[in-house]
């Protein structure tokens, strides 16, 4: 069937809807979903984006030093060979402005902007059981009826500012790394406080320190940070990669985490001290996620194995920081390495060697209040500041979906259904919310992967689902309760077999007061998860019900 024929069929068979699909978000996920549905399948699709331009995460996160922690050659779309070959990245890890420029290029190349409505928030979406359609309401007063509702909201798009006493009383400048002014910020000559020490702070602090007259970093939890070793990529490496597009694409899709990284054959407990240090040093010198995602797999399961790796990393911090007391504050304690998102370092530790940069431990002495002039700690210590930067992260994974009033069958509210933690099948759909598809939703590999790889897989699976529904003449699809329950159990059992639950992380929802402590990503790994999804589809959509007719899922799906 040609695109024109599919478009005609869509129009003639869709009188009860304004568009075939509504997509929420215009980042990597939303753009590829729109291209796939409209340009490849001939369907009528519309995107709503709260920003005034495309980019998603990279539209909002413009803080100093913001860049990808995935190598640039795999941090992009692979569905189009010409697109992959023609785009030139300037460095190993692309900066925010370059990623946004790339997504703007994709938008122009595939003529996507004409179906994107910018500066518009989706407030609510309600499933109409009488017509098997979704009614979507926006903050501009517009209401759209659609057959398929697809969330491309991202895992890290709902920013989090802790509810400090007096947070609104500060008379100086206030910024959040997830909502940075587009015109930038000049900290020259100012006393700046950065609250938080996660990935955003690790990137921003060295650059803010170059401008500020005085910089104080308020740290609750020290982070394991490994070198980025960023810089230009050698021309011969670029050319070799261009010749190997198909190989790279196949390898990252079949990999553990969407990178060209594989675990060592032996575990950390199986090698000598000399071999361990040699291998860790090699990965350290290479930079990137090699120590984390290409090192010793047993460190995720055995604290004894993990401790051997931790010791190496602790030594590296002490080597970089001149003041032994400051170094000890920067040495992580109380949790294993690798169970928190591993930030990449471009001078973070060395920044604390500068005389005008100070580190404050707010775990031992918590922030009691934000005052009109700065920060007051529990023991009464005050810090007078001209500007405060909240590098306090996000209400991750479930947060962006919970902020939309999504109501399924019987007007059940999604955030209430997820009150004790997310409940999905494959991280793709949730029972009693027919035709609601989530790109890289909770309980899929998502944030434990190089995101574009997982995004492409989910978009293509959703497109397959919609295509199959239309071929059958079916109006709705959703997971069975049994499959969803089994998937939720599978995810928690897999996490509980590792050290991941041992740390208070945003993977566990621990950074948000009152949020249930549940491990939210999926630990099946990118390649095996992809293979599992492919088998589910080929076996007639196991674990899903189409127009009420369920296909039971085999036990292997949850193994």
Mean pLDDT: 95
* Helix-and-strand structural type: alpha/beta
Number of strands: 21
Shape: globular
Report the sheet with the most strands, covering strand number, pairing sense and barrel closure.
Answer: 8 strands, mixed
Rg over CA atoms: 24 Å
Distance between the termini: 38 Å
Helical content, roughly? 25-40%
Instruction: Give the low-pLDDT segments.
Output: 1-14
Number of helices: 18
Task: Describe the protein in words.
The strands form 5 sheets. Strands 1, 2, 3, 4, 5, 6, 17 and 18 form an 8-stranded mixed β-sheet that branches. Among the domains are: 3-54 and 112-158 and 396-474, 3-Layer(bba) Sandwich (FAD/NAD(P)-binding domain), CATH 3.50.50.60; 193-390, no CATH class. The protein has helices at residues 3-12, 28-40, 57-60, 81-86, 96-109, 199-211, 235-243, 245-254, 273-286, 290-293, 303-320, 324-330, 348-351, 399-402, 414-417, 451-472, 481-496, 526-538, and strands spanning 19-24, 45-48, 116-117, 122-128, 133-138, 143-151, 173-176, 191-195, 214-219, 226-227, 344-345, 357-361, 367-370, 374-377, 382-384, 387-390, 405-407, 436-438, 477-479, 544-546, 549-550. The chain has 18 helices and 21 strands. Helix 2 (28-40) runs parallel beside helix 16. It is an alpha/beta fold and 559 residues long.
